[in-house]
């Protein structure tokens, strides 16, 4: 009797959290489609997966997920190879900073950079969900969108006397608010098909998008009840939890931030 094969698609797989997602899913028996535009990171991850999980099928795709034609072509390749998708993790994202690593003030955000952030962080989720829908539908797959705490709070400020003290700028926060809202909309539309849609909203994560110096970290920890930053493994744990949740939590955003933000 043949075992059921599970297939997961992970965007932004070459980054710190994306790599953790891919390795964890491989350990759970998923075959993987790993997507990134950084070919070197993608190749390194593929090599690691082949070494640690030799039985896992891995399809590595260098795809610009803001381009409809590239996403459509990728979806066709994945469907031809795997005949269905059990899980789509929309993890890719960017959070531009000043050269010093600090937050870009709103009035200093260039028009083109605003568009790039919206395309990378939000339009890509729309395109991936749209063009991978048939593959997901074939297996009643799940969608997990990686949002951000800043999508709920708004962008940060430069003093820890005000909440939230953060280097995230307005364009990043607005794009992640869109991800949270899109998650709710998709959950309603796909609910009758038995396809849950969730979001995970990390706070400050070690090795994530922020390049924090020691003074910033100490000030940041003063705002966090646990006085700790998150780690990528905690984001993976949230994904693992959602994979067991079925339709009960569809449309929900799971905040993972050590109590920095306690949204109701």
TrEMBL record:
Classification via Pfam families: adh_short_C2
Tree of life domain: Bacteria
Family the entry assigns: Belongs to the short-chain dehydrogenases/reductases (SDR) family.
PANTHER family the record matches: 3-OXOACYL-[ACYL-CARRIER-PROTEIN] REDUCTASE, CHLOROPLASTIC, SHORT-CHAIN DEHYDROGENASES/REDUCTASES FAMILY MEMBER
Protein name per Swiss-Prot or TrEMBL: SDR family oxidoreductase
């Amino acid at each position: 009797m043949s075992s059921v094969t599970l297939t997961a698609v992970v965007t932004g797989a070459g980054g710190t959290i994306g790599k953790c997602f891919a390795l964890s899913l491989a350990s759970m028996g998923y075959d993987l489609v790993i997507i990134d535009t950084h070919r070197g990171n993608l190749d390194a991850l593929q090599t690691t997966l082949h070494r640690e999980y030799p039985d896992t099928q891995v399809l590595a795709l260098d795809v610009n997920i803001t381009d409809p034609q590239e996403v459509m072509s990728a979806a066709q390749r994945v469907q031809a190879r795997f005949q269905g998708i059990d899980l789509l993790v929309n993890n890719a994202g960017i959070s531009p900073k000043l050269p010093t690593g600090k937050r870009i003030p709103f009035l200093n955000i260039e028009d083109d950079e605003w568009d790039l952030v919206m395309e990378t962080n939000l339009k890509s989720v729309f395109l991936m969900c749209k063009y991978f829908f048939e593959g997901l539908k074939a297996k009643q797959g799940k969608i997990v969108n990686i949002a951000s705490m800043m999508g709920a709070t708004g962008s940060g400020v430069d003093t820890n006397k005000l909440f939230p003290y953060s280097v995230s700028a307005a364009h990043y926060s607005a794009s992640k608010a869109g991800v949270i809202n899109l998650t709710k909309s998709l959950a309603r539309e796909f609910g009758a098909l038995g396809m849950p849609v969730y979001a995970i909203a990390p706070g400050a994560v070690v090795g994530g998008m922020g390049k924090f110096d020691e003074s910033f970290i100490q000030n940041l920890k003063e705002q966090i009840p646990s006085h700790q930053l998150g780690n990528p493994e905690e984001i993976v744990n949230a994904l693992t939890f959602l994979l067991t949740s079925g339709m009960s939590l569809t449309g929900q955003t799971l905040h993972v931030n050590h109590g920095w933000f306690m949204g109701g």
